[in-house]
Amino acid sequence: VPNVRPDEHHEETRPARAAISEIFMDHVMSMAPGYDKLKPWVAAPIRPTPAAFADIMALASAELDGTVLAIDIGGATTDVFTACRGEVIRTVSANIGMSYSVLNVARLAGTRAIASLLQTPMTEGELWNRIGNKYTQPTSLPTTREGTLVEWATASVAIREAFREHRRVLRGIPQLERPGEM
Questions:
Q1: Is the pLDDT reported for residue 24 higher than 80?
Q2: By CB atoms within 10 Å of each CB, which of 40, 122, 123, 124 scores lowest?
Q3: What are the distances in angstroms from CA 115 to CA 147, 161, 163?
Q4: Any residues with CB less than 8 A from the CB of 149 and at least 6 apart, and which?
Q5: 86 phi and psi, to 5 degrees?
């Protein structure tokens, strides 16, 4: 692919992104469970969720002629998208997620940040135990009200931290720096 920065004043990432996407689809997505069964059922190319989501964001922001924000929290990462009049900026907060990365959320923000959102008093030990259980059983769902509240509070803190990272990236993009936005 062509150089992504042919000179100090220009950047063209689309060819490199397309090549990376093609490699990802050929070597990663093709190994996903059920991919071989799904492929014959669809006429359009199968796309990774973030790519399809970015296209939806671009269309919505262009149609609205404004800025749209969306957050996709996963088990290991959290994606934050800002779309402004058809242009999409996506950041991926690695290690901020609700299962495989849940311990990182608690370490990053601290258990006080999570506990402050709970409606039920809980000791720091109880909170660490619940978060640790989620980490060791990443696909489990809460079975109690308290468990649900801990997941909700942890997700809220994870989203806040991922959005903070996203804002740091956006500050470096002049066309998105507008008074009153973000």
A1: yes
A2: 40
A3: 12, 15, 20
A4: 118, 119, 120
A5: 95, -15
